[in-house]
Amino acid sequence: MEGYQGETVVEHSEPKEELAMYFISEYGHIDGSHHKQWVLDQVARILMGTPVIKKEATWNNGNVEIRYETADPSEEYLAWITDDIDNDEAIGIAP
């Protein structure tokens, strides 16, 4: 994108339930079962304690976009995904 300046990590205090709902509302409508599976995986990660990183993307024209992404998975999530889920099917593909 023209004038893109990059991303900066910013502090946040949103509760995990609010962040999980953000992922559902932002990405849950995208067609494709592999994309929907990714949304479910992100929600599971968040609800099982995986940290969420908040970033501000900025452009020269003053536009700012808030972006969220999950960090390295929590131990609770890793135990769950290993014990209960087929890894190839659980993670999905990001939209």
Radius of gyration: 15 Å
Shape: globular
Question: Can you count the beta strands?
Answer: 3
Report the total helices: 4
Strand content: 15-25%
Q: Can you list the strand order of the major beta sheet?
A: 1-2-3
Q: Uncertain segments of ≥5 residues (pLDDT<50)?
A: none
* Helix-strand topology string: EHHEEHH
Into how many domains do the coordinates divide?
1
Distance between the amino and carboxyl termini = 19 Å
Keywords:
95 residues, alpha+beta, three-stranded antiparallel β-sheet, 3 strands, 23% strand, globular
Summarize the structure.
This protein is of the alpha+beta class and 95 residues long. It is built from 4 helices and 3 strands.
Describe the structure.
With 95 residues, the protein is of the alpha+beta class. It has one domain. The protein contains 4 helices and 3 strands, in the order E-H-H-E-E-H-H. Strands 1-2-3 form a 3-stranded antiparallel sheet. It is globular. The chain starts with a strand and ends in a 5-residue tail after the last helix.
